[in-house]
Write a structure and sequence with these properties.
With 398 residues, the protein is α/β, with parallel strands linked by helices. It has 2 domains: 268 residues, 3-Layer(aba) Sandwich (Rossmann fold), CATH 3.40.50.10540; 82 residues, formyl-coa transferase, domain 3, CATH 3.30.1540. It contains 18 helices and 13 strands. The strands form 4 sheets. It has a 6-stranded parallel β-sheet, with helices on both faces. A hairpin with a 4-residue loop joins strand 9 and strand 10. The longest helix has 22 residues. 34% of the residues are buried.
Length: 398
């Protein structure tokens, strides 16, 4: 059995947009599910309009929408809504990310789906949940990073707050959503029924900060901005060498002694200010200044060789181009050429970490409305209705 046969026969309707929901649906698609991406007329998924682009396609869209078939529908029309509900009759799960109140307005709520398919698993993703307060608060990844407190200890002391550059809340929420759907499907197979899962970015944010939150609750001390540093270990940060930056990570007293030897600083190993992890954290500024003075005296390559030989965890701070050309990146076989999937001049796609061969990537990201006619026809729609539903593609689909 292969990875892509795990959910063979499972049908997923992806009504979501942006990153979190589409990522969850893509994971299920990589695991073999038939994912039908329902895109709203006239422009489809919001990320289709975002730069940068690969030819006519947006790279953000391409990153989280492979292994799907695109159907373009006007969800504000009676025919479009009915088409979605009819497709849901043969679906196992639906993923949506409607803004607060829109699902009810469109008559595409859990009750609407359940009336047509009692076994449906609906996964709704929002920024702040659908409670009395959360339902009034639309938002995006960066906004939730700010609201959750995540930004407050990210960056450098006395500098304005900064966001984590990767869409960590969107992507982690997508992972939770996929996991939640898998669990709901397992419960259903063990005698359960349909369920409505409610995922939110704010919950993901607090879970990502689990140890900072518990530390605050235990000590009443707010986490501080440490730049590249860590709150529970030192030295554990980036230092500047002659020709670049170097990340050094030590967590134990034994590692610190070896680091001192490699730096030619035996006096630091017996300095009472640095005798234990707690001492080093308490005297972090003095420690960083002493180590920084040593690191500045030689090149990154010198320190990599010297510290590796001493068994110290360290790395050059690479830019993305450098990281993608590392030998270890090549060894991991991270990319699949979408040209092999029928995409002329296709952009390389990044495999899932659970798919070592990349073989689960079977279908390139779809063009807008590319599969409307085929999906509707195989789902039993008559030709007259198909013609009416797909007329919205003109000038929008490909």
């Amino acid at each position: 059995m292969t990875l892509s046969s795990t959910y063979s026969g499972l049908r997923v309707l992806d009504l979501s947009t942006n990153i979190a929901g589409p990522f969850a649906a893509m994971i299920l698609g990589d695991l073999g599910a038939d994912v039908i991406k329902i895109e709203r007329y006239p422009s489809g998924d919001d990320t289709r309009a975002l730069p940068p682009r690969w030819g006519d396609e947006a790279t953000v869209f391409m990153a989280v929408n492979r292994n799907k078939r695109s159907v373009l529908l006007d969800l504000k029309s009676a025919e479009g809504r009915e088409a979605v509900l009819k497709l849901a009759e043969t679906a196992d799960t639906v993923v949506d990310s409607f803004p607060p109140g829109l699902a009810k307005e469109l008559q595409l709520s859990f009750d609407d789906f359940r009336a047509r398919n009692p076994r449906i698993v609906l996964c709704s993703i929002s920024a702040f949940g659908d409670g009395r307060i959360g339902a009034t608060l639309p938002g995006y990844d960066a906004l939730v990073q700010a609201a959750s407190g995540m930004m407050s200890f990210t960056g450098i002391e006395d500098a304005p707050a900064v966001r984590l550059a990767p869409s960590v809340l969107d992507l982690s929420t997508g992972l939770w959503a996929a996991m939640g759907i898998m669990a709901a499907l397992t419960r259903r197979e063990r005698g359960g029924t349909g369920e409505h899962l409610r995922l939110s970015l704010i919950d993901s944010a607090f879970n990502l900060m689990c140890h900072q939150i518990l530390a605050y609750v235990a000590t009443d001390e707010l986490p501080k901005k440490l730049g590249s540093g860590a709150p529970s270990a030192a030295p554990y940060r980036v230092y500047v060498a002659q020709d670049g930056e170097l990340m050094i990570a030590t967590a134990t007293d034994a590692q610190f002694v070896r680091l001192c030897g490699a730096l030619g600083a035996a006096d630091m190993a017996v300095d009472s200010r640095f005798g234990s992890v707690s001492d080093r954290i308490r005297n972090r500024d003095a420690l960083d200044a002493a180590i920084g003075g040593k690191i500045r005296g030689a090149s990154v390559s010198y320190w990599l060789e010297t510290l590796f030989r001493a068994g110290i965890s360290c790395s050059q701070v690479n830019n993305l181009a450098e990281a993608l050309t590392m030998p270890i990146t090549s060894e991991r076989h991270l990319f699949v050429d979408s040209q092999e999937l029928g995409s002329k001049g296709g952009l390389k796609l990044l495999r899932l970490p659970i798919d070592p061969s990349g073989s689960a990537i079977r279908r390139r990201p779809p063009f807008l409305g590319e599969h409307s006619t085929a999906v509707l026809r195989e789902s039993g729609f008559d030709e007259e209705l198909i013609a009416k539903l797909t007329c919205v593609e003109r000038g929008a689909g490909r």
